[in-house]
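User: Hi! I'm working on a homework problem where we have to compare a predicted structure to a textbook description. Could you give me the structure for the chain below?
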Amino acid sequence: MDLNKKDSSPSAKKNGGFLQNILDTLFNSHSPEAEKRRKLKAIAKDLSRTKYHSFYKVQTGEMMPTFPKLFYDVYKLIFSAQNFLRGIPNKNAVKAKIINYFLSENQLNLLEHLNEQKIQEMSRKLPLSKIKAQIESDLDAFSAEFDSERATKIENCYRAYVAFNDFVSFDFYFMLKKFSSSLQEGNFASAPVFDKINAEYVVDELQDLMTIIYSIPDGIAWDDFFEMLKEMKGGELISAGTWRKIIQRLKSIQSSHAFEYIARLILQKPEFMPTVASHNETILDVYIDKIHEEVDTTISKIESEQKASKENDFCMKIFGKTTIDQLSHYVNSFNGTLEKKELNTYEYCDGVNYLKEFIINFVKTDVREYTDIVVIRGQWDATLSAPISNGYQELLQISDQITEFDKSLSEEGAIGMKIKTLLPKIAHDPGAENIINRLVNDANDTAKGFLITSTQDLIAIGKLLKQVIEDEQKPKHVLIQNWKELEHFSDKPLLKFGVEIYKKIYMFVQLMQSSLSDTN
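Assistant: Happy to help. Predicted C-alpha cells:
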C-alpha cells in the first residue's frame, strides 16, 4: 500500500471532516482555510434544503443525471427556435423587424416614401428644395406617432428578444454531450441515457447558464414578442405558453440559489456570485436616427450627382469636353494616397483645372482678341474700361501663379518634396501628420484664393461687357463712339462676338461658384 497516496474516498472525506471539526473545536481555529470549510459546509447544507439538491452530489463532487435531464427537455422545446435564430446573420435586421411590427399603417406608408429608391424617383420630377421640405415633413409625421405606449411596447419586445436569444443561443448540445457521448444534435427520436460526471467538467457552462438565466428581466410582455416571432418565421417556433413554463422553472432555480450553491462548491469559492447582464439597450432612438442618416446620405448623394451633372454640362458648353487635366500635381488622383493615411486632401482640384483651361483656351484667345479691338482701339474713357483691362491682366497673372503652384507640389517642388519625405513617417511620427495636413490646407487656401479672385475678375469683366454690348445696340452710343470703325478689325460681327464671350463668362462664373460650394 502506498502510504503517501491520499485517500479521496467518500468515507475518508467524511472521517477527515469529522476529525477536522474536532480539531477546529478544540483549538478554536480562525484560520482562513477553516473559515472557508465552515462556509462551504453551510452552503452544502443550504443546497440540501432546495428541491434541486439532486443535481449535485456533494460527497463526490459530481453532477447527477437529473441536471442534464432537465435541460434536455428544454433543449427539445427550443431547438427549432435555436436553428432559426442562428440563421439570422444580421441582428440589426431583427431590431428593424421588431420596430416595423409595431408601426401604424400610416408610418409604414411614410417609411416607404423615405427609402432611397423613392427619393431618387422624386428627384427626377421635383426640385431638390421641394423634396427636402417633403422629407422633413414626412420624418416629423413618422416620429410623432411613436407615443409612449408604442415606444414602451417596442423596447419591451426587444428586451424579450435579447433575453430569449441569449438563452436559446446557449450551446445546450455541447453541455449535454458531456453527460451522454452518444447524444446526436437535433435527434429526439429516443431519450438519451445520461451519466453522472465530475462537476468540474461543466462548471463553465453552469456559470454561463446562470448569467443567462439571472439576466432575464422580470415583467416582460412575452405575448407581443412571440406574435412578432411567429410573423418573422411564418409559423410558430415555440408557443408563449410553453416558454412561460420554461421561464417559471428557470426562475424557480434562480430563487432557490441552487446553481449558486453548486458553483461555490465546485469552485471551492464560498463568496462566488454569478455575473448578471443588464438589458438596458434601447433601439427606437437609434432606429429613428438611422433613418435620418440614410435620408441625409441619399440627399447628399443626389446633390453630388446633380452638381456633377451640372458641372459636366457647363464643361461641355464651355470646353467641349468634361475631362480637364491642365494640372499635374494638384490633382484628385493624389488624394487616394492622402486618404489611405487618413490625411487632409486637395479640395479644389477640379476648379483650378477648369480655371487654368479657361484662361489658356479662352481668356488668352477670344477675350484677348475682343479686348484688343474694343478696349485698346475703342474711343471711350479709359477709366471706364479699366475693369476689363485690369481683370484680364490679373487673370494672366493667376494663370502663371497656378503653374508655379502646381510645380511646387511635384516631388521635386518645395512643398511636394516635404510631403513625399514625411509620408513614410506618419505611422511613428505624429508630427509628420500635422505638418502634411498643414501643407495640404495651405495648398487648398491658395487654390481657393485663385478661384475667388478670378471669379471676381470675371464678374467685373462680365458686368462691363454687358454694358458694352448694350451700348453697341443703342442708336446713340454712350460708352464707345467708334463702333463702325471697330467692326473693320474683327473677322466676325463684334456684337455677336461680345455676346458669345459674355455667355461663356457667365457660364464659367457659375462653374466656379459650383466648384467653390463643393467644400462649403
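For your comparison, note the following. The radius of gyration is 41 Å. Residues 1-15 have pLDDT under 50 and may be disordered. Good luck with the assignment!
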